[in-house]
């Protein structure tokens, strides 16, 4: 898939979020890269051969100090194209994986932890 097509799917996933979530994404930058850097892989403790589809770097809204005068640097959501492409066997599967990854990483921005996100994803997958 071309980078432009991949980025369009990422943008559509963000645009499909309800307005009450989108209004809290003003200070979040979403970046598409080919693959995670060594530093990013190390930051999440990945072993060689393990893939990383996305990464949230920032301070969750639940932990930010809202009374500060300074504008904090933007949080970042990284989406990694090559690992997603390697994992998926069809365009449809790739679109679903991109959407899931975007939602998962933005969930971290809202303060959700891995176990909470996994529970939500499991519940979502169990629906008919």
Brief synopsis:
This protein is of the alpha+beta class and 128 residues long.
> Cα-atom Rg, whole angstroms?
15 Å
Oligomer: single chain
Largest beta sheet: strand ordering? 1-3-2
Largest sheet: 3 strands, mixed
Q: Determine and state the CATH class.
A: Alpha Beta
Q: Count up the domains.
A: 1
Straight-line distance between termini: 29 Å
Tell me the CATH architecture.
2-Layer Sandwich
Q: Overall mean pLDDT score?
A: 87
The proportion of residues forming helix, as a percent range, comes to: 40-55%
The helix-and-strand class reads alpha+beta
> What would the principal axes of the Cα set say about the shape?
globular
Describe the structure.
The chain has 128 residues and is an alpha+beta fold. The protein has a single domain (3-126), classed as 2-Layer Sandwich (Zincin-like). The chain is 48% helix and 12% strand. It has six helices and three strands, in the order ααβαββααα. The chain has helices at residues 3-15, 19-22, 38-43, 81-87, 91-109, 114-126, and strands at residues 28-33, 54-57, 75-80. The protein has a three-stranded mixed β-sheet with strand order 1-3-2. Helix 1 (3-15) crosses helix 5 (91-109). The longest helix has 19 residues, at 91-109. It is globular, with a radius of gyration of 15 Å.
